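Most newcomers find our protein records easier to grasp once they have seen one. A learned vocabulary of local backbone shapes supplies the integers on the structure line. Here is such a record, shown just as it appears in the course material:
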Amino acid sequence: METSGERARSALPFGEKVSEAVVSLYGCLPKKGKPQGREVTVLAAFLISSPSQELKVISLGTGTKCIGRNRRTLKGDVVNDSHAEIIARRALLRYLYSEIQHVYNTHAHSNGSVLCDDVENFMFHLESDGLGPKRLKMKHGWQLHLYISQLPCGASPSSELALLHDSPAKQGGMMCSSMQLSYSKEESLGYMSVNDGALLSYFLEPIYISSVTVGQSHIASKSSIIKDEMIRVMHERILPLSKLMDPFQVNKPLVFVAPIPPEEFQHSETALTTLTCGYSICWNKSGLHEVILGTTGRKQGTSAKGAMSPSTESSLCKKRLLESFLSLSRNCLGEHAFVGNSYRELKDKSQEYHLASKTFKASSNFKNWFLKPQDFEAFMAL
């Protein structure tokens, strides 16, 4: 039976329901990694809604920092960009790896998963027609939603907001497509900060974001200003991508404005009196909970003596994401598992994604996309 509190929440505007769910979960997390004193941070999260519109947070991230050029490595063992949107999205990738493995292990109907539950959907197509693997997809009627505690700064180039493939994000801008979620040109990195979801395209059909909810600001006092800016960024600059090839498509999510977030997520109003928190919290529903020091890209508490130890590597670094992919490949594909390939080679072998990515970056609004040197993705799993 529905309680009075549940009835009250169900009557709230959608953006407010999203915000309440995210802030409530954040409040339940331990103090470690949260802003202290005059510090502030950014909060981002992904949620899913069931056919009955029940909302659940499945991944969450905080943060405003990234590493400097002198901390970049060729091993994929640090998190280059620890802004909230990227952390939340990488935590989502790990959640989806867990979901795929769960579906594979059950071999049957898995009511707890948001993915279609026929394991044969993501076994390799063994016929000689070169179609590659069949993939899972999100169950009918389920939707993915994004929450960000503040409007990303600046007017950035944009494509449609979708999910699961190379998706960069940052406080400094938002841009989205069937491969891209948002983008970051960070001077200390020297290139656009791009997340790593191409490998999931071997196992999943594209999953598109249905809505984006942004926390309101005291400065942008009218929610219509925020909504108009988000629509301009996400909808009006995607026309060159209208001919993306199947299975990718242009997606235009709904935009909602949430109430002003708690004080520790308020930046623009307090910039002269606050400091940005150096830590990033990453959490997902499958059991991940870490705190990353954004300026080093490694776990909180890393000592100078053991700074390069594997134990300091975050679950969200590319090396660990590659390990998750290869483990899933072995478990799901058996003798057809991927072996002997670098991270870059595996991304390039995902042909549909690779072609869509090239189309995206060649379009008029994104042709100046700054790419990282190829050797930063030439590493292999140990």
Q: What stands out?
A: The chain has one domain: 15-377. The radius of gyration is 20 Å. Residues 15-377 form one domain. The first strand starts at residue 39 and ends at 40.
